Amino acid sequence: MDLTREEEIRQNVRDHYQKIAVASSSCCSSSANAVRQADFASAQLGYSEEELRSVPEGSNLGLGCGNPQAIAALSPGETVLDLGSGAGFDCFLAGRQVGEDGRVIGVEMTPDMIAKARGNAHRSGMSHVEFRLGEIEHLPAADASVDVMMSNCVVNLSPDKPQVFREAFRVLRSGGRLAISDIVTTAELPSDIKGDLKERYAGCISGASSVDELTAMLQQSGFVQISIEPKEQSRSFIRDWLPGAQIDDYICSAVIQAVKP
How far is residue 146's CA from residue 99's CA, in Å, rounded to a whole number? Predict the structure, then answer.
């Protein structure tokens, strides 16, 4: 993919989530009904009622496709980086697990999402959770500075996934681990959907890769102990992403784990 096309995709994704950030900050979208919808979506992904109640209001926008918290096995004192942190939902949950001796860094390329997340952080009083504006292909983080890298339905949005994994490898310490929930293809996408590099790409559909493709990317980046486990039960909510298209015949959510040696 040429650089012009990559930047076009990246801008389309940025515009899509910028609109979500702005809409979620409006008086209408911050209603109790919107909160209930986001919480319902997250409960389907495996988040507990206690987790949903523990985060600042407005941090859960219901945008994920899994629960990276469930696989990250975070410990007190660890440093965590969240790729595409949105309004901060997973970051705040991680902040509770690593404690004040730990650190959580959310990286997000959408300015209004960053502003929303920082406002949520201020209200939460979690001084060890911070948000940095940046792209996941060019992380604003030092070499070998992170213990765990999480992400929730974001890597599929990148037009240069191998670069995302190279950056993850750079930033992780030796023994550091990936804990990612993302979309994978289980069959070849229809050409009209795969060719939609705007709406369907930003909607976490046409940018998805297969398990074999992701495995190869991770291996080439240097990761070991690679595990990619598709979650068949995710098809029940994925079919609603594109009603009538039977999109769940082609994609599902997966748990992606790997270790930097």
Answer: 15
As a whole number of angstroms, the distance between CA 105 and CA 127 comes to 11
Q: What is the pTM of this model?
A: 0.94
d(Cα 71, Cα 92) in Å, to the nearest integer? Answer: 16
Number of domains within the chain: 1
Query: Quick one: which of 151, 117, 122, 144 has its CA closest to 132?
Result: 117
From CA 30, how far away is CA 132, in angstroms rounded?
Answer: 24
Q: What number is the average pLDDT over the span 231-247?
A: 94
Split at pLDDT 50, 70, 90, the class of 26 is: low
CATH number at residue 80: 3.40.50.150
Q: Which two tokens stand for residue 220?
A: 């080439």
At residue 140, the 3 state secondary structure works out as: coil
How would DSSP label each residue in 31-92?
SHHHHHHHHHHHHHTT--HHHHHHSPTTS--S--SS-THHHH---TT-EEEEES-TTSHHHH
Cα separation, 174 vs 108, in Å, equals 24
CB 131 within 8 A of CB 109: no
Kindly write down the DSSP assignment for every residue of 25-36, as one continuous string.
Answer: TSTTTTSHHHHH
Paired with 184 in beta bridges are: 209, 252
Range of the domain at 158: 3-259
